[in-house]
């Protein structure tokens, strides 16, 4: 199985970067293969219960100065099974995206950012780190 670049963010603000091979929302944890600057361990078991989210990223550097799109007024191609939503985290961060799996799993759900230039390709959001989720009206 192919490992994906990921940034793991804990609810306490801690961050660990590395690779995830098999993240399954029906489990209590997953294995992260961390970059050497975060741990000398070959792999770490990460429990969902202490996480905010897992960001599957294009690269580990990103652009801290980039202003993310915070609107749905973009050319967004979605399927009928996707829902537009705004995730409001407990730390006041807001995530605009779409999801196929919102509410399907106890531990969390995957979100795809609306901003094509976002460094995150998809994000696994942990329910315990969320203040609220606003489902957007479906236009017909």
Please sum up the structure shown.
The chain has strands spanning 4-10, 15-20, 29-34, 44-47, 51-57, 83-89, 94-99, 108-113, 120-126, 130-135.
CATH fold label of the domain at 4-57: SH3 type barrels
Q: Name the beta content range.
A: 35-45%
Measured as a percent range, the helix fraction is: under 10%
Number of strands: 10
Low-confidence stretches: none
Describe this structure in words.
The protein is an all-beta fold and 140 residues long. It has a domain at 4-57: SH3 type barrels, CATH 2.30.30. Helix content is 0%, strand content 44%. It is built from no helices and 10 strands. The chain has a 10-stranded antiparallel sheet, with no helix packed on it. The N and C termini lie far apart (39 Å). The model has no long low-confidence stretch (mean pLDDT 88).
Map the helices and strands.
Blueprint: E1 4-10, E2 15-20, E3 29-34, E4 44-47, E5 51-57, E6 83-89, E7 94-99, E8 108-113, E9 120-126, E10 130-135
Antiparallel strand pairs: 1-2, 1-5, 2-3, 3-4, 5-9, 6-7, 6-10, 7-8, 8-9
Describe the structure using short key phrases.
single chain, 140 residues, mainly beta, SH3 type barrels, ten-stranded antiparallel beta sheet, 0% helix, 44% strand
């Amino acid at each position: 199985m192919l490992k994906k670049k990921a940034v793991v963010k804990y609810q306490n603000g801690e961050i660990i970067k590395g690779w995830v091979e098999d993240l399954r929302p029906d489990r209590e944890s997953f294995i992260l293969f961390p970059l050497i600057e975060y741990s000398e361990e070959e792999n770490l078991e990460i429990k969902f219960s202490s996480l905010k989210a897992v960001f599957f990223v294009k690269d580990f550097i990103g652009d801290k100065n980039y202003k993310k799109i915070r609107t749905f007024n973009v050319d967004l191609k979605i399927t009928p099974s996707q829902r537009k939503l705004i995730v409001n985290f407990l730390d006041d961060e807001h995530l605009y995206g779409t999801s196929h799996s919102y509410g399907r799993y106890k531990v969390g759900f995957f979100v795809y950012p609306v901003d094509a230039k976002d460094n995150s390709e998809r994000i696994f959001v942990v329910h315990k780190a969320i203040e609220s989720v606003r489902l957007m009206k479906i236009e017909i």
